[in-house]
Specification:
Low-confidence stretches: none
Shape: elongated
Strand content: 15-25%
Mean pLDDT: 87
Distance between the termini: 65 Å
Order of helices and strands: HEEEEHEHEEH
Number of helices: 4
Radius of gyration: 20 Å
Strand order of the largest sheet: 2-1-4-3
Number of strands: 7
């Protein structure tokens, strides 16, 4: 039998779970970066419906002593293709979209001499184009909702 990789563990044990959490260096990590790695340990029992995979010994020890870092870093997606907005427009977009949907959007902007570039952040795992398209779809939905309530 070959080595048990993260990918094979997911294939064997991941079908009945709602979430897969991978840890490296005592911090939450992106599972897709470790698919071909042989982890130190994994477990199903400490959280309901969650498969936890520990890439290294440090993560396993941190899990046992309660110092495991759960937060995963958000990725930023810059909407340069939309051109510039005014700060008031960005504030309105933030008010409408902050924390919305399962992607839990965090709306920011970069302001250079009054020319603001919209930036969204999320820890949701998907391609840049899918995340940007979904954000735009939801933002348009907010406009339609506003129009309906007038």
């Amino acid at each position: 039998m070959g080595k048990l990789t993260v990918e094979s563990i997911i294939n064997i044990y991941g079908s009945g779970v709602k979430e897969i959490k991978t840890y490296n260096e005592a911090k939450r990590a992106k599972t897709e970066e470790f698919l071909q790695v042989e982890p130190v340990a994994f477990g199903l029992s400490d959280e309901p419906d969650v498969l936890r995979i520990y890439i290294d010994k440090e993560s396993t020890e941190a899990s046992l002593d309660g110092t495991l870092e759960e937060n995963i870093v958000e990725k930023e997606y810059v909407f340069t293709e939309l051109g510039f907005f005014g700060e008031r427009e960005c504030e309105a977009i933030k008010e409408a979209m902050q924390g919305k949907t399962y992607m839990n959007f965090n709306v920011k902007w970069s302001n250079v001499a009054g020319n603001c570039t919209l930036i969204i952040c999320t820890d949701y795992e998907d391609t840049e184009s899918e995340i940007k398209n979904f954000f735009l779809h939801c933002a348009l939905g907010q406009i339609f909702e506003i129009q309906r309530n007038r």
